[in-house]
Amino acid sequence: MHVISQILFGHSPVENLVSTGNILGNDGEKLSKSKENYPDPWKTIKEFGVDAHRFYLMNSVVMHSDDIVFSERDLQNVNRKVIRILWNVYNYFVTYANEKEWEFDPQRSPQEAKESNNVLDRWISVRLKELVKGATDALDSYDTVAYTRQIQEFIDDLSTWYLRRSRGRNDRAFFATLYRTLIYVSRVIAPVMPYVSEHIYRNLGALDGYPQSVHLHEWPDLVDLTKKERELLERMTRVREFASLALAQRAHVGIKVRQKLESLSLNTKDNEMIRELVVILADEVNVGRVEGEDAVPVGAVVLNTRLTPELMREGMVRELIRAANELRKEIGLTPTDKIRLYYSLTHPDDGIEVLADFEEEMKKETRADVVEVSREPHSALGAERDWSDRGWKLWVGIKKI
Fold first, then answer.
1. Strands 392-400 and 339-347, how do they pair?
2. How far is the C-alpha of 345 from the C-alpha of 333, rounded, in Å?
3. Each residue's pLDDT tens digit, 337-346
4. How far apart are CA 180 and CA 126, in angstroms?
5. No. of helices (H) and no. of strands (E), the chain
6. Which one, 71, 131, 183, 374, has the greatest CB density within 10 A?
7. Which of 175, 200, 184 has the alpha carbon at shortest distance from 101?
8. Phi, psi of 263 (to 5 degrees)
């Protein structure tokens, strides 16, 4: 090709060339039709999807000219940790946006996302800008490994931090921010996940003046991060580090995250971080308050693990809510299905505990129209569960309305 191109046109036929390594079978030999040392491609495509195959290979060292052994387990991990996580975020948005009858308004929604006062909305918007910059730089360098890692890290942040910390929100700024994020993500992932990106883009609705396909859309514009935006990223990173330390302390003393604790003390000289992000940290670690404390070493956290009777009651409420929501999944209820919730919380010494002051919380978290303290016959229920916790006997049952 080089010789012919030089003779005919006087220049090289390519400007950039990507050279890959070999894909090997479990026997260590290069994949070969004659040896049939590879899994059935139609079977793996049917099971994991074409996009998972593309992402897996573009994310592997084979794109850095090294050899790899084709692994169905790694392919499955890509499907589970990238494709499905993104799909779950998209599905969450569609489910609750439809429930709240939210629709994208081209005049109003972009402004609502841009001007949101919610720190999580502002953070994910900055992370989105960081994703576009990182993905662009990687592709300009023909580095598909760096490109796909940028995507994987962003999807993980979108799901395990932004969406998880935003659950229960139904304000317009949240829907506008998540809608914008999914549209931009579909454009960024299109080269490596063409089918998932197209599905998300088309189902969210190609608007007037926009291309009908994500693959006809222009690449997102690059916008440099401001100093204030970089500071927000750094502060959120520190908050997540504090959260990891606190959760590790919980695990060490054997207290579940569902059990609310009184307080968390930490030492940081960044007063802006404490003012802006303390609520997120308290919610993630499940404590009543976060306090600045000079006696705590810088960068460390100290949990107050003393359990009062009131904190114990709140912990039991969270246990009941968790069990009820697991039962909802077991019998295949959708997020819009309403239930009647029954519970029983008893202690050998204290007798039956009535959680009347938590009734509204239980209704909201389990999507129950009615909450009753009673033990219904199994035949009248959709599902039920018994278990014990620290001397208490708990029972919960649900019935679809």
1. antiparallel
2. 24
3. 999 999 999 8
4. 12
5. 15, 10
6. 131
7. 175
8. -160, 165
